[in-house]
Amino acid sequence: MQEMFFTFLIPAMISILAVILQKNEMDLTGENRQNDFLIAQLQRESDEEQTQALGNETVFSNYIKNMADVILSSSTRMGNQHYIVTRALTITVLRQLDLEKKKLVILFLYDSWIIHRGGNIFLVNSPADPPKHLKGAILNNVNFSNDLELPGIVLRSVTLINASFSNSDLQDSDFSNSILIGVNFAGSKLDGARFFDTKLQRTNFHGASLQNAQFIRSNLTQSTITDDQLAQALSLFNTILPNGTYARNKTFLINGDAKQGTNGWNITSGIIKVKDCYFTGNNNSTMFQRINTTEARLCGSYEVFRYCLSFFFHGQHNLIIQIVFFDSNQVIRGVENWVKSEFTYLSRSLGSFFFLNIFFLFQ
């Protein structure tokens, strides 16, 4: 009986051992197959990354070559046609590049003085010129940090969502009409920067310098910016503050709303009275105020300084507003007279004028 038991046991053990060995071999084969699959996948990803990197490098190199042709084709200052070609090439290439190469494109344009304030083909010489910008340029999440020196950079009408400029020098920069939602300006120098019609929601200005910066019709909702920083700004006009309220305009005209009587105005003849926060005067009454534009001019981004004057006429048909322009030597360079029938809002180029005398002439 015992011999019979062993007679059946030995084959059974051999069969079990064979099954175990076969299973181990199958598991090992499966693992090898899985490893081969993972290796192949990693190789494909590596090849794709190398191909993409090579493609990025090729696209970037071709862009630099094309831009060099544009720059070298002009023996003098680049004009409007160069601007059109530059903008088209740049918008196209930015759609094809990774974040690092996008950064290099902007640095190339900056170093070439193409998007550098004061000496670039995007410069607007007068308010009558059509706006020049990089509208369509997508620079989201691009990192311009690490103490970059970019004073005077012009990035108008671009999209820079969640980009970073921390600890960078951006003095006298121009971000007008751009989307800067979630941008990091922490620790940056933004003295004299222009933010005209700029979306700045959730933007971080922690520790940034904003001396003489200009916020015009911009949105600072939920941004990190202090009252002390806002107090440094040259202009805060029709701008939404972090708490949702609107900023009052910083104006160079003293007591323009007559809420302080005639304080700030020089009455040279006749009698000037204040009634319900507007000025009234009898015949041949005159008052004026001199405005020094030097401070504002320091932050102008254009070769021609632009100013705005608005007036509300309250049934005063005998009023003439006279503007006298003076140069830096206080020599009269021009005179303009305006009456109610001609305007209530004035926007003009100041040219080489440094002082304005605003006269109210009641006739």
Q: Would you kindly provide a written description of the structure presented here, covering whatever features stand out?
A:
- Helix content is 30%, strand content 18%.
- α1 (2-72) packs antiparallel against α2.
- It starts with a helix and ends with a strand.
- Among the domains are: 133-250, E3 ubiquitin-protein ligase SopA (Pectate Lyase C-like, 3 Solenoid); 266-362, no CATH class.
- It has 5 helices and 12 strands.
- With 363 residues, the protein is of the alpha+beta class.
SSE layout:
Layout: H1 2-72, H2 80-94, H3 99-111, E1 194-196, E2 214-216, H4 227-232, E3 235-237, E4 266-269, E5 272-275, E6 278-281, E7 285-292, H5 294-297, E8 305-310, E9 319-326, E10 332-339, E11 345-351, E12 355-362
Helix pairs in contact: 1-2
Low-confidence stretches: 124-128, 299-304
* Outline type: elongated
Terminal CA distance:
141 Å
The CATH topology label of the domain at 133-250 is: Pectate Lyase C-like
Task: Sum this structure up briefly.
By secondary structure, the protein is of the alpha+beta class. It is 30% helix and 18% strand.
Using brief descriptors, characterize the structure shown.
single chain, alpha+beta, Pectate Lyase C-like, 3-stranded parallel sheet
